Amino acid sequence: MKKLFALIIVAFLVLTVFVGCTSTGTTTKTAATTKAKEDVTLDFWYWEDSEGQEKNIYTDKWVAYAKSKGINVNFNGMASISVMHEKLIPALAAKVGPDVLGTTPAWIPELVSLDALKDMTNDMKKWESFANNDVGKGILELCRANQKGYYCMPWNVVVLYLYCRVDLFEAAGVAYPETMDQFYQACKDLTRDTNNDGKIDQYGFAMRGAAGGHTSWASLVFNADANASYLTADGKPGFNTQAVIDANQKFIDLYKNGYCPPSSITDGMQGIQQNFTTGVAAMFPHHIGSYNTIIKTVGEANVKVIAMPVGASGNRFITSDPATISINAASKHLEEAVTFMEFLVSPDIVVERAKSLGRYPWQESLLKDAYWHSNQALDVSTSLVGQSVAPPVIASASDWTNNLFPQTLQRALQGMITSKEMIQILADGLK
Amino acid sequence: MKIFSPKLNHFDFAPIIMLIPAAIILLCVILYPILNAIGMSFQFYVISRWKERRFVGLENYIKILSDDAFHVAIVNSLRWVFITVPSQFLVGLILALLLNRKFKGRGFIRSICMIPWVTSGVVIALMWSWIYNSNFGVLNDILKRIGLISTNIAFLANHDTALNSQIVVMIWQGIPFFTVMLLASMQSIPLDLYEAANVAGANALQKFRYITLPFLMPTIFITSLLRFIWVANNVDIIYQMTQGGPGYSSLTLSVYAYMKAQKSMDFGYASALAVYGTLFMSILMVVYIRLLNKKEQNR
Question: What kind of fold does domain A34-159+322-386 have according to CATH?
Answer without folding.
Answer: D-Maltodextrin-Binding Protein; domain 2 (3.40.190)
